[in-house]
Amino acid sequence: MGSKVQNINMSLFFKASILFLTAFFSTFCFPLDPDRIKSPSYKEGRYHNLDPDEELQGKSPIDILKWKLIGPKDPPATEGLTEEVPLVLERTSKDLIAPEGKIRVVWFGHATVWISSTENGKTVNVLTDPIFEAPILVNRLVKLPIPKESLPQVDFVVISHAHRDHLDRETLRFLRSKNPKLQILLPSGMKSFSESEELGSSISQELGQTTSKDSVKITFLPAHHWSRMGISDTNQYFWGSYALETQNKVVYFAGDTGYSSHFKNISARLGKPVDLALLPIGAYKPRWFMKYAHIGPEEALLASKDLNAKSFAPIHWGTFPLGDDLPQEPLLDLKQRLTFPEAPDIKGIYPLYTGISWGMKDGVRILPWTIGSGIDL
Fold first, then answer.
1. How far is the C-alpha of 376 from the C-alpha of 265, rounded, in Å?
2. Secondary structure of residue 117 in the 3-state scheme
3. Could you report the per-residue pLDDT of 105-142, keeping only the tens digit for each?
4. How many Cβ atoms are within 10 Å of 29's Cβ, its own excluded?
5. Distance between CA atoms of residues 319 and 339, nearest Å
6. Which residues are CB-contacts of 67 (< 8 A; sequence separation ≥ 6)?
7. Domain contains 199
8. How many structural domains is the chain composed of?
């Protein structure tokens, strides 16, 4: 009797082990495109940035442990910092649709931005790096400005890179279920990933590749970053940024990036000013750990000049606690570098909100907005 029970227990143990290993590898192991080696950006066994990127090989668990336990930590960027999270302005589905002849840009938090363009009665809606919940082991500090079930039709999703706070599989599958004609734009090397995750219609892109619908053209452009989704795929998927051109205007989405020559490279590629640059400023501390992969407020201002941007709005802050910076620290750091008019400049802000005004720095308009804020171009 005892041996039978032991055999049953061993059988259950092996079954449980198989289930655990299956779950583990399905969560932390992902397929790689065999043809990634043909990419112009792939050499010496991995994808590369335009500039030298030896510091961007991916942080090991030991590196992260050193950061968390030993430091050092950067001093506060400004006085009076608290744990207070950003205000969320609630929106409806109608709020998200651009009026005729306009582009409407609404920030959903982190790097998720809604971009809507309406021209000649045709509306095209784009979402950048959508994540509606939270990545593994991280808490979401703020809610979405609109319930995900209430979103209007989404035509394009653009993914900047394979990190879990930017490429969220559950969010993508949800959007696919609600939008059968959805087109997902991915960096080079992610075709097999898309197929295995059953993401549906997608395009794996090289630098300079464009995709169009009606009057909207989306171009995949450089970034200075790295990628990893699992345990053995570091820098085996590419990364990048996007320019959305429509109605003779350019909206640039930087994704996640360190500071490098790629911003000037993008300006040269576009050959025209950027009307609105969406640039990350958060998860920027401590600088010794974050600077190679994440620009902060100071570098975002430099990037806006490199891009020949008319205006810029800060993203990638206040949503997930990914760095040492407190929720509103990146924005307060940015604001102290700007000058503001005596009377609030609210031109193009949607909805009009007296707590938000355009600021200025070296001829660039900067909008220290909050989650749910919008801009009409």
1. 27
2. strand
3. 999 999 999 999 999 999 999 999 999 999 998 999 99
4. 13
5. 26
6. 286, 289
7. yes
8. 2
